[in-house]
Write a structure and sequence with these properties.
- By secondary structure, the chain is α+β, with helices and mostly antiparallel strands.
- About 35% of the residues lie in helices and about 20% in strands.
- The chain contains 3 helices and 3 strands.
- A 3-stranded antiparallel sheet has the order 1-2-3, covered by helices on one side.
- A hairpin with a 4-residue loop joins strand 2 and strand 3.
- The termini are far apart.
Length: about 90
């Protein structure tokens, strides 16, 4: 993250971008008031792109809506079932 000067007398804003290392593409995620908000924005974008394999700041299971956006493969679906404590695996 990059610390930017404040717009007024407030604290510096946090700037985030999502990097997809394999394709060298960058997605601008915006400016955030706190480092925590910036970290969560990064996590949500990463989970939407990479699903359970995303490198996140917080537990990937904290983002169920973003996991739903990701089009997972069968292996990821079974891992999610295991995380949820369900024994009904998909083969």
């Amino acid at each position: 993250p990059h610390n930017l000067p404040p717009d007024s007398d407030g604290p510096p804003l946090q700037e985030r971008e999502q990097r997809q290392e394999t394709s060298r593409k960058y997605t601008y995620l915006g400016l955030y008031e706190t480092e925590l908000e910036a970290a969560k924005a990064h996590d949500k974008a990463a989970v939407a792109c990479f699903g359970l394999h995303a490198h996140t700041n917080f537990d990937v299971r904290s983002y169920p809506e973003e996991l739903a956006l990701h089009n997972p493969g069968m292996k990821e679906l079974n891992m999610l079932k295991l995380f949820q404590g369900t024994n009904e695996l998909l083969y």
